[in-house]
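Below: protein 1.
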Amino acid sequence: MSSSTAKNHSAYLKKILLAGSQKEVKQDLDVTINSLLAENQGADKIENFIAGLMDELELLSPMNKDAGQWSNIHMARVHLHQMRKKS
């Protein structure tokens, strides 16, 4: 994984953790993916971004997060999985 991709994943993980609601998590992810599509990023790059972010989310432990953060993490994982199935 390139350092810019790792930085992007770190930035989105922070956004997910700081989101005020599950709805905000979904909206942020939708905006991100739509902006990648608008930038004419290839399907492979978008899939790699989603897969990498999902991998990063899998590494997080509920023992180190509060209930709101864990709820956001779960919503992000579910929403990313749904996005993958649609593509």
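Below: protein 2.
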Amino acid sequence: MWFAFVPSFLTILVGSFYVAYQIMSFRSSHLFLNEKKQFITQLFDFIFGFFKNNPTITLILLIVAGIVILFYMLLPTMLEGGLIQMIARKYNKQQPRIIDGIGYGFASFLPLLEYHAISKSFSVFTVITTGALFLRNTEIETFQLLSIPMVFIGLVGLIMTILFTYTDFFIVIDKEDIFKSISKSCSLVLTNWHHTFLIMILMIIISIRILINILLVLIIPAIIMISGAIIAAFTMAKIGIIVGVIIGIVALVIASYFTAIIHVFADAVWTFTFLELTKEEQLNAREKQSAQ
């Protein structure tokens, strides 16, 4: 469970700040308040002002933020490799230990990190965030012109995501290189078209997981801000902030736990499907079917 809980915790934590940033950026854009300074400029001004008045605290916060971002960029990929290996080995009646899972994660870390960097560049999420950036910083007419190619790119990215479904597993379990894993994944998806219905179900499971992540990311900042504001309205501001932070941390842990359960379940289903589909090699037209 820790192999899924830690990535879920980091994803929701970073995602909460990212969603808050997007909301504030839209709020200050020409679509709403049309403020003279963009939110990112206001944020840097606030950080520099806070640093002048509280240099030590600011430095500590920046170091903590840097560590969290570094963990967010590296740990989920490493733990994902370890989780896939452990699920596959348990499927084959092996008994891997947690310390073994960490070793498996390190073994597949670099190729998996490289593949994720490639795949995320054309993901639907990347298209949506790019579209949000254009929407905030361009006129509506310009955005309407850009929306057509962005929708097309998003559809292409969705198709590629489906074709690359098993790439992670070829990298982690079979230790193939990145481009060979991508090629094998595309071939496996296309040649097993009769499993389309199963793949669709799996994609729905992943979509539900993503939707839950999004909802949790939206709820947690709201809980922190609303609870802090309500308590601050009746008591001292510092107490309101402290209580709001405590409630937010509790909500973050609970959200991470339930997201981790979905993460493990989805990875197990995908891993079992991969192992079953690759159990027997596909025959070409010149080969004879072996006797069962």
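The two ends are 39 Å apart (CA to CA).
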